[in-house]
Amino acid sequence: MSTATMVDYTNKKILAPMVRISSLPMRLLSLEYGADLVYCEEIIDHKILSAKRIENELLGTVDYVLSDETVVFRTCPQEKEKLIFQLGTCDAQRALRAAKKVEKDISGIDVNMGCPKEFSIKGGMGAALLTQPEKVKQILTTLVNGLTIPVTCKIRILPQLEDTISLAKIIESTGVAALAIHGRTKAERPQHRNHNDVIKAVAQTLTIPVIANGASKEITTFEDIEKFRLDTGASSVMLARSAEWNTSVFRSQGRLLLHDVIKQYLRYAIDYDNNVINTKYCILNMMHDNMKDSEGEPMLGVTEMSEICKIWNMSDQYNKVLEERKKKKAKLVKQNGADDAGIKRRKLEDGKTLFELPVRFIRMNYPDAVSPKQLLHNWCLKNHCKAHYDTVERPEDRCFNSVITLGDIKYTTPYWEKTKRHAEQGAAIAFLVLNDIPDGRIKNSEDAKEDLPRKWRAFYHTNTEPCCDKNYSPVLSNPPVDSVHHRGQGEESPVKTTPDLSTGNLINGDRIIESCDKTIETFDVITDHTVQKCVSVEGDSEQPETTQ
Fold first, then answer.
1. What are phi and psi of 420, to 5 degrees?
2. In what helix (H) or strand (E) does residue 294 lie, and over which residues does it extend?
């Protein structure tokens, strides 16, 4: 291991890895208030291996993005020297491949060997490893020998002290830089007492730094952190719930009012385009004992970032950032020569024309009673025509893409979705938008901007006859053998698996012959990642858990 990249784990105040909490805004806020190190939430090895590393020039971040545009992990230079990446794994070689992938963007790797949640244990990860010392040794030894950054792990205690000490000695023998210990067993929960005495016994046995964790009930002030460290005999302290509830607990000058802490968190969420679902989740958890405040009830119903900003009197800041980002985006587009519109026209071998439109189905933007597929079906009934859905599943990640055929024109999106339903809804939106048919989206949605669809339709209409002419009644050619005749909203189309989709294109061998090169605004989830190398959609997390 290169000594140039070593992290000092002694006498440190650390933000714990908390699922859906320890995302970029919370990590930056913790560092601002005085945390020495910050851990990201646990990320499973399979997920990071299937993600693509993208340098997001617009936000100044590095994003790891899945094929469906979900951002698995986002970081920035400001935190690199103090960022520890927590990995969920049960396989040594897969863990090494995942760690090597992010190695240059972080300062340390931590293996989660303490999460008691079912999703982790069933996968052989987290606390499931506590009773598998040989696998623990294999995983950690492989990582220590294969990486140029320090390796640590985080465990829970075992029911018997001697077993905990024995496991700790095995972990130390692998060459790890430190060991974090949550002072509860796999079966115990926050309401149970943290076993500080067990942590102390382990700390007295090992020669590597021990990081004490699990005392959120004991720590409410900055001074309590040092008291807990002395009580456990540990080298450092890791904070979970106490930091989540008021991150300013890291301040040596004393805690701030929660209202001010939340507003500062929100500034980071705005600056780094954190998604509204995660932002809402974090703020509600920060307010856990303060939901009777005036902001509490309104926060429960928010669905858009602008609504959150309005509640916290930060609309001006939000709008300012959006305007600055818009200008920077236009500059990047000009510099990079990127095709900002995203619409593409392809001529297929069978003579048909395929239009690829960068739109997606975001469930919260549509009412429960209607969907784009339903609206398309109704339109087809009215116009005496039929839509055919051809849906394929990509084998390597089991994501879906769908193409709709009406007459000699096909409609699709460039995205591979986690579900077949979302892929088909996206293709339906592409058809409806290009043919100027309302797709049912909620009118007050932030994504419902009309300037971009107008430019898409202008490009579309210059390259084909519009399908929404009131006299239109196409005579459809027979669909391909493996395509699906979609007879009604209730009828599901079978899935076709395509063996070679490494290029990400649905139809192999097709060439793009035209594209719209106009500079446009954003639409739907096509936000800031329309610029090459710029992706700005935060992704989904595992089930909520604040301590591991």
1. -60, -40
2. none
Q: pLDDT (tens digit, 9 = 90+) per residue, 221-247?
A: 999 999 999 999 999 999 999 999 999
Structure tokens at 120: 């982790």
Closest CA to 295 of 322, 317, 314, 277: 314
Burial grade of 278 (CB within 10 A; 0-12, 13-18, 19 or more): buried
On whether the CB atoms of residues 509 and 500 are closer than 8 A, the answer is no
Of 527, 255, 119, 89, the residue nearest 100 (C-alpha)? 89
pLDDT mean over 455-480: 57
Q: Secondary structure of 81-111 in the HEC alphabet?
A: HHEEEEEECCCHHHHHHHHHHHHHHCCEEEE
Residue 115 a catalytic site member: yes
DSSP 34: T
Q: How far apart are CA 114 and CA 214, in angstroms?
A: 12
Give 187's DSSP letter. T
pTM recorded for the entire structure: 0.75
Among the listed residues 115, 22, 113, the one whose alpha carbon sits nearest the alpha carbon of residue 75: 22
Spatial contact of 147 and 109, defined as CB atoms under 8 Å apart: yes
Q: What is the pLDDT of residue 519?
A: 27
Report pLDDT digits (tens) over 119-148: 899 899 999 999 999 999 999 999 999 999
Closest of 537, 329, 545 to residue 447, by C-alpha: 537
Q: Name the active-site residue from 40, 90, 115, 153.
A: 115
Report DSSP letters for 377-421, one per residue. HHHHHHHT--EEEEEEEETTTTEEEEEEEETTEEEE-S--BSSHH
Quick one: which of 235, 203, 232 has its CA closest to 215?
232
Structure-block tokens of residue 471: 């006299």
Across the chain, what does the average pLDDT equal?
A: 84
Residue carrying the six token digits 């600055």: 324
**What is d(CA 521, CA 527) in angstroms, rounded to the nearest whole number?**
8
List the beta bridge partners of residue 412: 356
Interval 71-124: pLDDT, tens = 999 999 999 999 999 999 999 999 999 999 999 999 999 999 999 988 899 899
